[in-house]
Fold this sequence. Notes:
The chain is of the alpha/beta class. It contains 13 helices and 5 strands. The chain has 2 domains: 4-134, TIM Barrel, CATH 3.20.20; 156-221. The protein has a 5-stranded parallel sheet. The termini are far apart.
Amino acid sequence: MAGINLNAGCPSPLVNRHGAGAGLLRNLPRFADMMQQLRANLPAGQFSVKCRLGWEDAAADFPRILDCLAAAEPDEVGIHARTRKQLYGGTPDFSYIKRAVQHLACPVLANGDITTPQQAMECLETTGAAGLMIGRGAVRNPYIFRQLKGGAAPTPEEMQQYYAILIEETGRILLHKRTEKGHCNRMKKYLAFCYPDFPAGQEYALRRCTSMAEMQRFLTQSPITCTENSCGETAAAQK
Ligand SMILES: Cc1cc2nc3c(=O)[nH]c(=O)nc-3n(C[C@H](O)[C@H](O)[C@H](O)COP(=O)(O)O)c2cc1C
């Protein structure tokens, strides 16, 4: 069903400068008002919120954010368990997700650094979250969803095929906006999520690629596979 997801998670300075994304968390009365307005105008099931733990101090900010969320009664809340100050680094603190699960009436989705089926299951168990949101871990290994349903870890062939599709599909979206070199550089950003799966030294080789042909050649020739670290025990058991 179509709906509106209010994003209070994006840490981009360009976005935050205008009070949007995680910038909404710097002005909680405005955030609360915006959510109330959306709730009042959207039918049940069509209003959700994505947020972080706060701007820079989760202990101080998050309880107030939770009160705003509880009052607005969204249909679902996804929480990236970091503050805006942490950007994408540091350790996500899932104890705050557990607090949200206890405080809010709606389903809560946990988000932040989930890259293996084992981590996913542990996160669900410890937080009581209704579900997970997996970002970079899914770019690195889209088969994580199959694994979560009890399926096998990806084979090297599946991963190589995936990288080929990743480059082709992002090219379709991005190439009309960028030069080939620009697209190549953007792909390095996405592939950085996958570096744990590259054989030693290959990360350096990939960073030096200057054209998409070079990158394509590199990815199809190198024996890329999910490591035990990035895919968890299922992959290890298959080796
Ligand atoms: C390249 C990239 C693009 C993203 N775009 C969005 C977006 O459009 N909307 C959103 O809510 N979050 C977006 N995020 C944030 C993710 O949804 C997620 O909250 C964050 O990456 C932490 O989860 P992870 O550790 O599983 O990646 C993006 C993250 C990355 C790395």
